[in-house]
Amino acid sequence: MRAVVRALGFAALLLRPAGVRAGGDDWHRSIDPARCDSAEAIEYPPTQRWIRHRLVPGESLAQVAARYGVREADLRAHNGIDSRVPTLVVGATLRVKARRVPPPRREVLYTAREGDSWASVARAHGVSSKQLRAHHYTRERGWHAPLREGTALRIWVDPVVHDWLRAGRPDDTIARGGVGIGAPDTGELRHGVAIPEGEGYTLRFPDASFGTSHAVGELVRALADFRARTDYEGTLELGTMSREHGGALGDHRSHRTGRDLDIALPRRVDVPGWMPLTPRRVDWRALWDLALALAEVDATVVYLDYTLQRDFYRAMRAEGVGDEALRRILQYPRGHKANLGLVRHAPGHDTHVHVRFGCGPCETECIELGAWAGGPAR
Ligand SMILES: [Zn+2]
User: Fold this and answer.
1) What is the distance in A from the centroid of ligand 1 to the CA of 261?
2) Are 106-157 and 179-357 in the same CATH fold?
C-alpha cells in the first residue's frame, strides 16, 4: 500500500512539480493559501493530530469533516453521533483527528445595504446562502423573506476564502468564490462559476456547466492553449461539469464539486455528426493536443477506457510521437491499474474523456481525489 501511495505521489510530482507537497499523500495537493491572497496559513501536521472544533452557525458535519480532511463517518464515530441528521447544536465542540488545520472561522458583522440579497451577501463573503439564511431565521420573517436593508448580519467566514474574495481585482476574468466542498463523488459546489462561451468549443449542457473558480480558470487556459497548438478544425463538445450548487447529478458518480468535466472525443471532421463514434472516427491527434494542453494546467487525471487508450497509443506512435511523451500522457501499455500517466482507465469512458481538475489554492474544504470514496470517476 505504501508503495502504491508513493508511486502516486511520484507520478504527480513528475507531472506538476509546482503545487506538490512532500509526503506522497495527494489529497490536498494544490491547496496553498500562499497562492490565493491570504495572510492566513493552513497547517498540515505530519501525522493526524487531535484538535477541538467548536461548531459555528450553519456548519454541517460533512463540511467540518472536509475541512479537516477526515471522513465524515470517522467524525461521527469519534463523537458518538449516530444520527443521519447533519445539523448539530451551534457551540458544540467536536473532537477531530485532523489531517489539515485551516485557520478558525471568523465572525464578521455586516449590515445589509440597498440592493443586497441573501445570495449576493453570501457570495461576497464566501459562505452558503442557505446557511446564512438559516442562521438568521426568525419565526416572524419566515424562510422566504427577502433580505431587508439595514438588517444586521453575523457571518462566520472562512478567513482564507474571505481574504481571497476581498482581494478580487476588476480584471479577474473568472469570478472568485467558486469552491468545492469535500470529495468529487460526495461533496458539493459553492457559488459555481459558469464555463464562459468561447471559440472552438460548445457547451452541450449549459445547466450543468458550472465549476469552481480554479477549475474553470484552468479549463479556459487549457482550451486557449489547445487552440494555439492544434490544427483541428472541428468543434470540441464540452459535456457535463456540475450544476451551479453541485451535488448529485443524473447517474454520474462524481461531478459533484465542480472539478469534473466530460469532453466528447473529437470527431474527425470528415465524419458526419449522425454517425456513431468509433475509434476509427476519432481524431486522435486532436485528442493528443488536448491532453498536452491539459497536462500544462492543474488537471490531475483524464479518464479514458483502457481499450481506447490502446487505439490512442497506436495512432500517436504512427504519428511519430516519442516514448517519453507517450509515457507521460498515457497509462497504456502499462496495465489499466498502473498509477502512471495523466490518462487513466475508467470503464465506460469510450465516447468521451472525463477530466478532473485539482482543488484551488484557497479551497480549504476541498478533498483532492475521492481518496477514501474509492473507485474511478463516472
Ligand atoms: Zn464523467
Assistant:
1) 6
2) no
Distance 302 CA to ligand 1 centre (A): 10
Q: For 106-157, CATH number?
A: 3.10.350.10
The mean per-residue pLDDT over the stretch 326-340 comes to 95
E strands, the chain, are 49-54, 93-98, 106-111, 152-157, 179-181, 188-190, 193-194, 201-203, 210-211, 236-238, 260-264, 299-303, 343-344, 352-357
CA of 183 to the centre of ligand 1 (A): 14
pLDDT at 89 over 60: yes
- Is the Cα dihedral 320, 325, 329, 334 positive or negative? positive
**How many angstroms separate the alpha carbon of residue 113 from the centre of ligand 1?**
41
* Global pTM value: 0.88
Reported as a pLDDT band with limits 50, 70 and 90, residue 87 is: low
Cα–ligand 1 centroid distance for 69 (angstroms):
24
Question: Which of 93, 98, 92, 94 has the alpha carbon at shortest distance from 50?
Answer: 98
The helix (H) or strand (E) run that includes residue 315 is helix 306-318
Fold of the 46-101 domain: Membrane-bound Lytic Murein Transglycosylase D; Chain A (3.10.350)
Nine-digit cell at 168? 478580487
133 CA distance to ligand 1 middle (Å): 33
Q: What is the predicted pLDDT for the residue at 258?
A: 97
Q: How far is CA 326 from CA 13, 93, 97, 336, 361, in A?
A: 17, 51, 41, 15, 29
Q: Please state the domain extents for the chain.
A: 46-101, 106-157, 179-357
Complete DSSP assignment for 212-248:
-HHHHHHHHHHHHHHHHH----S-EEE---B-TT-S-
Q: How far away, in angstroms, is 143 Cα from ligand 1 center?
A: 35
Q: How far is the CA of 376 from the centre of ligand 1 (A)?
A: 10
Instruction: At 210, list the grid cell.
Output: 458550472
| Contact (CB, 8 A) for 239 and 264 | yes
pLDDT of 249 strictly over 70: yes
Do 283 and 269 form a contact (C-beta atoms < 8 A)? yes
Fold (topology level) of 179-357 = Muramoyl-pentapeptide Carboxypeptidase; domain 2 (3.30.1380)
**Does residue 201 contact residue 238 with C-beta atoms inside 8 Å?**
yes
Higher-pLDDT residue of 89, 68: 68
